[in-house]
Design brief:
Blueprint lengths: L6 E5 L11 H15 L3 E7 L6 H4 L3 E10 L2 E12 L2 E7 L1 H4 L10 H15 L9 E5 L5 H10 L9 E6 L7 E3 L1 H5 L7 H7 E3 L2 E3 H8 L2 E4 L2 H6 L3 H4 L3 H6 L4 E3 L27 H14 L9 E5 L8 H13 L3 E5 L4 H13 L3 E4 L4 H10 L2 E4 L9 H7 L3 E5 L2 H6 L13 E3 L4 H17 L1 H12 L5 H15 L4
Parallel strand pairs: 1-2, 1-6, 2-5, 6-7, 7-11, 11-12, 13-14, 13-16, 14-15, 16-17, 17-18
Antiparallel strand pairs: 3-4, 4-5, 8-10, 9-10
């Protein structure tokens, strides 16, 4: 048996700190370094967007350039490389597709990311790297496993490349008119490919292609892996996922334990640890003053940092806020989203002195909320993984979550008989049930401070590092290449 490290090409449409719109960017910015620490050799491939800060662009080294066959055309592709945190990031350069003001939401996104997927597969011939695993993420890279199988099999370089596809949110699948099948993808003349990409009359689904062609499918929590095999969560892909359940697994995401650390965070009023929580009291008092609340240590302060959408459970929040606020609990909500929810929160802010609606994006305030609150609310309709509940626990702020996806997998509900737990949870998407759990949590805060502190310590000492996730991914890769 060889002791050679497995070579992983990690393809993502975004990666922090270069370009990020959401959780995928966090994953691609953190997981690859943890994979290397766990024993893999990793190269990350991302588009060279026009929005990448100049401080990164000026340090990039040009590797090569070539042309990528895409349907009836050939498109220029340049490869630039930059090392960050010990990981090589290779940027796919094509200014016509990527030199724009934002990452997504253009009329030609289907063509842009079909090009990116094809460029990733074509690039394996042009980079000095032995690829054992091509790990693709979400619909923007979903065509890469299809291209690999249909256009590159039989070439010695590609013969042993195995594909892994990770679903970060199955609600976004990359669906386009079937013209892209011939005009962009060049797959219309291959009956098997066309059959597996169609998802309805004249509609092509990029993600469906990856679900049919990949050697392994993963998603970002074990519970979400089970949920997406059901019609309610599966977004019409549940049948395929049930058929391929033997190769589907859920691996819980992690968080950056260095960035999110109450011992060193410079954005909060005072630093603290699980062994000494005095600084957290200072953080709470400072946040109460900032929000215009009465500064009282004996009043529970509950926060939310979220997009204001139905998916994030805002219907339940609207329903339950009167009950919660009338009991004296202080509440702060930070975020932007749908107008109906923004206006509703402004109304509660006007009506109750113990309610603060901050309809904005403010990363420093989000950190002060994580550190200064006693409770953190996440009542999501669905949540593939979720990071906020892990961050809240890291800061000793106990999460109140609905038992779905990664929220169920990461939060251990309080057991009043054993004292175990890292937060509180409820099962059904029901406003009364949520309000009842919030009040039950407040009751522990008010009447059992010893138990409350024990829960905080449990939460703060839970391991949510990427190390745990990386070891699971490396085991999955090893299963595809047992000879390595």
């Amino acid at each position: 048996m060889s002791n050679r490290k497995l070579g992983v090409v990690f393809a993502s449409s975004e990666a922090a700190p270069f370009a990020k719109t959401g959780g995928l960017g966090d994953v691609a910015g953190s997981l690859p370094a943890a994979l290397q620490d766990a024993g893999c050799e990793v190269v990350v491939m991302v588009p060279k967007y026009g929005t990448i800060p100049e401080r990164f662009r000026e340090k990039m080294v040009h590797l090569c350039d070539f042309y990528v066959p895409l349907g009836w055309r050939s498109e220029y592709c340049g490869l630039d490389m930059l090392e960050e945190r010990g990981v090589r990031y290779i940027f796919v350069d094509n200014e016509r597709y990527f030199k724009r003001d934002q990452l997504y939401s253009y009329f030609d996104d289907g063509e842009r990311f079909a090009f990116f997927s094809k460029a990733v597969t074509e690039s394996l011939q042009h980079i000095d790297f032995h690829c054992d695993i091509l790990h693709c993420n979400d619909w923007q890279t979903a065509l890469a496993p299809v291209f690999l199988r249909e256009f590159y099999q039989g070439m010695p370089l590609y013969e042993n490349v195995k594909t892994v596809f990770t679903i970060h949110n199955i609600a976004f699948q990359g669906q386009y008119g079937d013209k892209v099948l011939s005009d962009v993808c060049g797959l219309a003349h291959i009956p098997n490919a066309a059959r597996q990409l169609y998802c309805g009359p004249q509609t092509v689904n990029f993600m469906k292609g990856a679900l049919c062609y990949s050697d392994r499918i993963t998603t970002v929590s074990p519970t979400y892996a089970r949920e997406i095999q059901m019609p309610f969560y599966g977004e019409h892909m549940d049948g395929i996922l049930r058929d391929r359940s033997s190769i589907l697994s859920g691996i819980l995401n992690g968080i950056d334990m260095v960035s999110w650390d109450p011992r060193t965070d410079q954005s909060v009023a005072a630093n603290y640890t699980a062994a000494d929580l005095n600084g957290k009291k200072e953080c709470k008092a400072a946040l109460q003053r900032e929000l215009g609340f009465e500064v009282r240590d004996d009043v529970p302060l509950m926060g939310m940092v979220t997009r204001l959408t139905k998916q994030k459970g805002m219907d339940l929040v609207q329903y339950a806020l009167d009950t919660v606020l009338s009991r004296g609990i202080q509440v702060v909500v930070l975020g932007t989203g749908d107008t109906c929810y923004e206006d509703s929160l402004r109304y509660f802010d006007w009506k109750y002195p113990n309610m603060a609606a901050r309809i904005m994006f403010d990363s420093d305030l989000s950190r002060r909320i994580y550190a200064g609150c006693d409770m953190f609310l996440m009542p999501s309709l669905f949540e593939p993984c979720g990071l906020s509940q892990m961050i809240a626990m890291r800061y000793g702020t106990l999460p109140i979550v609905r038992e779905t996806g990664g929220l169920k997998d990461s939060v251990q509900p309080y057991n009043r008989f054993t004292g175990e737990g890292t937060g509180f949870s409820f099962a059904n998407f029901n406003g009364d049930e949520m309000a009842g759990v919030i009040l039950a949590a407040a009751d522990v805060f008010w009447n059992n401070p010893v138990e409350w502190k024990k829960l905080q310590v449990h939460a703060m000492t839970t391991d949510f590092s990427w190390r745990r996730s990386a070891e699971e991914y490396c085991g999955l890769y090893q299963g595809l290449h047992p000879e390595a």
